[in-house]
Amino acid sequence: MAMTGGCHCGRIRLEIEGEIPQSLTRCTCSFCAKRGHLYAYYEPGKFRATGEDAAYRWNTKLVVHHFCPSCGCGTYSDIPAFGRDGSWDGQTRRIGVNARLIDDFDAATAPVTVIDGKNLW
After folding, report:
1. Are 1 and 19 in contact (CB under 8 A)?
2. Which is it for strands 24-27 and 112-115: parallel, antiparallel or unpaired?
3. Domains located in the chain, CATH noted
4. SS3 assignment for the chain
5. Which of 10, 58, 59, 121 is such that its CA lies 20 to 30 A from the CA of 33?
6. Per-residue H/E/C for 96-114
7. Single pTM value for the model
8. What residues are paired with 40 via a beta bridge?
């Protein structure tokens, strides 16, 4: 099933082949905690973004946080596929979509799993 979404002004549109995960993810790292995103994770091949966005990298530079340069909405993050213990195979990536931007979906009502990013990375 294809899902769509996008930023507030419509400049960035998202297309996802898949379903909403059974649980969204909230990360407690210093950046994610300030943004307030609830992430839905997908394989890179199941995701497409259109429109010209901007990106922010910090610390290790391994995570690329994308956002709309017009309205400022954080849209998705391209991240290493970290294990729950913070391990990574050095290659596999995943896309963390800001589930709050998915059309016709109220992310505030979904179950949420918290990742202790404040202490993992």
Report:
1. yes
2. parallel
3. 2-120 (2.170.150.70)
4. CEEEEECCCCCCEEEEECCCCCCEEEECCHHHHHHCCCEEEECHHHEEEECCCEEECCCCCCCEEEECCCCCCEEEEEEECCCCCCCCCCCCEEEEEEHHHECCCCHHHCCEEEECHHHHC
5. 10
6. EEEHHHECCCCHHHCCEEE
7. 0.91
8. 97
Going by C-alpha positions, the residue among 78, 97, 119 that lies closest to residue 7 is 97
- pLDDT for 77-116, tens place per residue? 999 998 877 789 999 999 999 999 999 999 999 999 998 7
d(CA 81, CA 107) in angstroms, rounded, equals 22
| Residue with token string 């994308």 | 66
What one-letter code names the amino acid at 89? D
The β-bridge partners of 20 are none
| Six-digit token string for 104 | 């016709």
